[in-house]
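Fold it.
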Amino acid sequence: MNYVSAEGRQGRVMVARFKPGQDLRDALNAFCLEKGIKAGYIPVLLGGFKNLKVNAMAQGEEDDQPRTVLREYREPLEYFGCGTVAFADGKPSIHIHLTAAQGNHNAVGGHLVSGEIVFLTEVVIVEVEGIVMTRQSDPEVFNMPLLHFSH
């Protein structure tokens, strides 16, 4: 089998707008914790950042293993993204990938590390019920903490 999966059902659909001046990851984690969202996905995530930090993949030096490169962007950027919500160690574990546009129309992207909301952020979170979503290291995939499912 070339995949890992579980079947759940759609729960609540939450729509929120986050105000400027806060870190997006912190805001999403606090929102999910407050609303009791332990498993879900984020199909809509858009807004404006400054002080954005993303991890991007680059070619590794051994065995084609990718390595992570941290990129930082201080200027304001508009972005859109999507992600998943799992639960680990008693708190939400948010995994977001996004693409952002700089003022010169160059696009940047990657895995969200942090970003200060500068304009606004709109988000739709769809809760998944009937399964438990966590993150566990997978030795078959560079020992990275990946989405894990159970009932």
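DSSP finds one helix and eight strands in the chain.
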